[in-house]
Write a structure and sequence with these properties.
alpha/beta; Uracil-DNA Glycosylase, subunit E; 6 strands; about 35% helix; about 10% strand
């Protein structure tokens, strides 16, 4: 029988609620990028991925046009995902350091990765209406992670989405390593600069910086198995 997460995944993947996002994701999937001309693009909304028993959730902005919009799995097939999953591997939250396709064998351990908006938005900028239309999917997804203790928010958009979801207010100003706790004290949001090329190529976000966030997330969540592999 399908699990509730699987049922929600199917609902997310069939959503057509935002006309601008539907048009854009399907245009990108049709036109493709020359380097991916042989791919059949996913071209649909992207659900979260990972361990249903996860104590750590990773929350990003949205699928990349030629990343998850191509592969069908969040943070897969682009440079941001390369940086993210390599860190999660070093920190004992993934079984391999790379993620190139939906069937490449990647498994997450005590971790779940998702996004605030499920369709690739033009210029990586969803509208407020699109953000709010998608928000119930995140609410339902996180509610199906019964052991959740930590949310690693990638970038300010992810952080603001987490704070809206958990009704954290006032919230501390966003910054790398900043922490905020839910009103009931059950979940901690830990901030990281987004692993975009703009941040990783300029050194604003380094491997050691994102590793520190995941090591901290493990401690806060009480994850003790699978010792980090050389995380600094």
């Amino acid at each position: 029988m399908p699990t509730r997460l699987q049922e929600l995944r199917h609902e997310i993947e069939s959503c057509r609620a935002c006309p601008r996002l539907v048009a854009w994701r399907e245009l990108v999937a049709d036109e493709k990028r020359a380097s991916f001309a042989e791919w059949t693009y996913w071209g649909r909304p992207v659900a979260g991925f990972g361990d249903p028993e996860a104590r750590v959730a990773v929350l990003g902005l949205a699928p990349a046009a030629h990343g998850a919009n191509r592969t069908g799995r969040v943070f897969t097939g682009d440079r941001s995902g390369d940086f993210l999953y390599a860190s999660m591997y070093r920190c004992g939250l993934a079984n391999q350091p790379t993620s190139v396709s939906i069937d490449d064998g990647l498994e997450l351990r005590d971790a779940f990765v998702t996004a605030a908006v499920r369709c690739a938005p033009p210029a990586n900028k969803p509208t407020i209406d699109e953000r709010d239309t998608c928000a119930p999917f995140l609410t339902r997804e996180l509610a199906l992670l019964p052991n959740l203790r930590v949310v690693v928010a990638l970038g300010q958009f992810g952080y603001e989405a987490a704070c809206r979801h958990f009704a954290i207010r006032p919230r501390p100003a966003f910054g790398h390593g900043v922490e905020a706790t839910t009103p009931d004290g059950t979940v901690t949001v830990v901030c990281s600069f987004h692993p975009s090329q703009q941040n990783t190529f300029t050194g604003k976000l380094t491997e050691s910086m994102i590793d520190d966030v995941f090591v901290r997330a493990r401690v806060l969540a009480g994850v003790t198995s699978d010792t980090p592999r050389g995380a600094r």
